[in-house]
Amino acid sequence: MAVARKSRGTRVRHLGLAGRTGTVLLAAGIGVLSPASVALPAWAQQSSVAPDAGGYYATPPRVDPSKKPNDSGKPDKTYEKKTECVQRSKLGGDQVDIKNRPWGQEYLQIEKVHQLMRGAKKSVGGGIKVAVIDTGVSAHPYFGGRVESGGDYVATPGGGKPPGLEDCDGHGTEVAGIIAANPPDASIGFRGVAPDATILSIRQSSQNYEEAEKKEEPPPASSSGPPPSSNNPGSQLPPSSQGNGAVGGAADGTAPGQDKGGRQQEQGKTAGTLTTLAQAVVRAVDQGSNVINMSVDNCRAASGSITRGEQELQAAVNYAVNRNVVVVAAAGNVGDKCPQNDQPDPKAPKTIVTPPWFSEDVLSVAAIDDTGGVAEFSVHGPWVSVAAPGTKIISLDPAEGSSSLANLTIEGGKDPGPIQGTSFAAPYVAGVAALVRQKFPELNAREVMNRIMATAQHPAAPGGRDNFVGFGVIDPIAALTAIVPSEADKAKPIQLPANLPPANDRDPAPMIVALAGTGGGLVALLVTLFVVHSVRRNRPTTTPGRKTP
Question: What is d(CA 142, CA 184) in angstroms, rounded to the nearest whole number?
């Protein structure tokens, strides 16, 4: 027996080093192969800026209601049109009407949403007023006269138009079209999410209008030199002849000039500041809006501080929500002046975008592309609430007098490119908010916001949200039919129409990947525990070199 035990003990000691080495290699190999171990979660990585080091990074300071600005109802400065307004492009021939549905409408099942609403309410967004704070909204015929003048913080519109109903840039008209356009031709696939809603247009910014230059006193007349004239290279041309023709410098430019960073506030001398944006929010509330859409942003480096304009905007959106108005804002686009938040610790962002930063009171909307993944230009951040389609956009042609659609933009003298940006993801959410407000009038603004987030297609992340798409891509059908526990006493279930098309089954790939990763990690753990247990069980109980009696 002693010999047998000694032989067994020797054999175990021989396998001890190999067994331990094998255990480590086996666990490491399985760990590498496991999808769950591709990268550490953001919260487990080192941060270059400690969130508790002082200042405001992921979370802004508490709102100060006293900072809510008084609404002046007028521009903060004198702005002049420096670039000609958007024009319709022929693109080398007669324009062909766009008949197909945008992929975003198909992805969100907007046609089914409209059938559901007409079966329950007989209208789709009727009686709901959505304020579009943007570059103005043109009275496109597809609005059917449902655009109201809300105010103008840029300039007095030309041609006798009411304030807010001139859209020189073209951006606001496209945004409003995604919310409430309703083409009378049934063969046209494009439709707004809430095609019976009313648009309240407030023009607050423009990249085609710039701060007016101070006029210098003309020099005294002198016989020693020629009088000033338009032929003199040193004289100044009248404002109407300055600029570069149509948007982007093309004589047949179409759609808005969408710079790389999106519609940025406080950029150079162009019209649009955080102060006037805050005033516009207050104005939209006081004029009876149910929903506010802001597809305009201010992007800056995170410094741990908050500016006066940001405080005013924070107080304004808080005022709106407390007055029962849902506020929706674009999450922002990556650009030269707006770098992506790709730092290891999401709680220490290097870029701050407002109004999304104030996510306590704002639905901040990221963009996805037609693959269902987050769009590369969409700014990440802990304030992102939800996501919606933001690429290959089809919407109303914003050119003066047009009665067609647009799906391309020409800028900078370049070839036509697709219309895209978080600017166009936000109105999808604003449209859904309008429908929820119509369907559940007893819900207050915060409950509407919560319903949209609670029914979104949650990502496979802790708590069902991440910094890319927030609580996930919106699900309009679920937002209008699901029972949310926190409001069970207010929102009652409804009977769906019998002719409603079958549900569009979601892609199971994300769930399969998540389960595979979890299963791989569990297998690695069980194998490691089994091997370690086997080694310990067979470990010799004697000291090496000592004979067992």
Answer: 7
- 451 vs 469: CA distance, rounded Å: 16
Q: What CA–CA distance (Å, rounded) separates 291 from 325?
A: 5
**Per the residue annotation, which of 138, 149, 201, 423 is the catalytic one?**
423
Which position among 171, 295, 361, 380 bears the catalytic label? 171
pLDDT value at position 1? 41
pLDDT-based confidence at residue 520 (cuts at 50, 70, 90) = confident
- Residues 6 or more apart whose Cβ sits within 8 Å of residue 502: none
Separation between Cα atoms, residue 169 and residue 186, nearest integer Å: 29
Q: Is 11 helix (H, G, I), strand (E, B) or coil?
A: helix
Distance of alpha carbon 518 from alpha carbon 521, whole angstroms: 5
Query: What confidence tens digit (pLDDT) does each residue in 54-87 have?
Result: 789 999 999 999 999 999 999 999 999 999 999 8
CA distance 135 to 268: 17
Structure tokens at 147: 């655009």
Rg of the chain over CA atoms, in angstroms?
30
Is 134 noted as a catalytic residue in this protein?
yes
423 is catalytic: yes
* Closest C-alpha among 477, 473, 478, 481 to residue 457: 473
Catalytic residue among 34, 71, 89, 134: 134
Query: Is there a catalytic annotation at residue 114?
Result: no
What contacts 68, CB < 8 A, 6 or more positions away? 278, 282, 312, 315, 316, 318, 319
Q: Report CA 127 to chain centroid distance, whole Å.
A: 26
